[in-house]
Here is the input.
Amino acid sequence: MKIGVISADSASESRVAITPDAVKKLRKLGFEVVIQSNAGQAAYYADELYQAAGADIASSSAEVITQSQIITTVNDLSAEAIDGLSSGQIVIGMLDPYRNTQLDSYAAKGATAFAMELLPRTLSRAQNMDVLSSQANLAGYKAVLLAANEYSRPFPMFMTSAGTVKPAKVVILGVGVAGLQAIATAKRLGAVVEASDLRPTAREQVESLGGKWLDVPMSAEEAETAKSTGGYAWTPSEQYVKDQAAVVDKALSNADIVITTAQIPGRNAPRLVHGATLAKMKAGSVLIDMAAGTGGNVEGSLPDQTITTDNGVRIVGAANIPSQLAAQSSDLYANNLVNFITTLIAPAGDDASAKLALNVDMEDEIQGALAVTHDNQVRLAKR
Here is the structure.
């Protein structure tokens, strides 16, 4: 039984789905592995490393697809690759399911497609398969380094004979996995950090990392509602939204660095920073918009472009930060995939000589949640 690895079909994507170390793990499970030639080159994994780990090298994606029962990818397959699929094949990757216009094509081919972004993150057995967390953690770290590179002053405070250098003021909007790592990294670099999130429960996490919570007054009833829903399902009052905007606007007006991390699966990213706020910011300040690829948190941001406003504010549209740490992000992503693939293996039973077999089970709480196509049907609910 063979697992195939397809090269990323994008000039802006340097990651690879399976690394040489992951090949070794898959072979121990009983799989063979075939990888498209140079698929790992941009992540510094040469074909020779894959061959040393026991993988075969194929000259094209079509050859990989022809040989493989399971096909792994970083992002969605190309239309040409999907056309080469056959009934019963499995595709695993970050398929951007709610924006994916090719799910009908996967279903028509009879392929079972698993979108790793749909993993139920509340399940303890699923934590080691969580691609969103593994990639966001690295992205939050790298976002701070990107900001430091763009900013024309240092992050920490310096005491020099020529005078005192003040520490940079950093504001993080959105305190998920990426936001928390951004706070920790900015603090390690010596910055003064403030953070805001819709979830009041995030305050403890921010303060535990040494950041200052941008507090927004709310009624006791609102606070209880927000806490009980975890924040994400909470609909704040108009007054709260207005008060939060005022608090954030003031913080950003005094900030040197702003990093926005808010994204919503299946929807455009929420707009957090508007033009009126940008106009109040200092010349030389920097915004890193980590949601630039899904509409942007910052008004005017564009994917993979850096824009300077009329008042000298630099807006960096950071659409795919994990790709800039391709070696490490590929390692973590590959481990996530290997851990998920283990759920597809049928129990061996008492027959030690039995061959490796797959057990695709839509009743399984993980497989069922991730499967977007199966049995010639699109399973993804519309959002």
Notes: Residues 171 and 194 are 5 Å apart (CA to CA). The two ends are 36 Å apart (CA to CA). The first helix runs from residue 20 to 29.
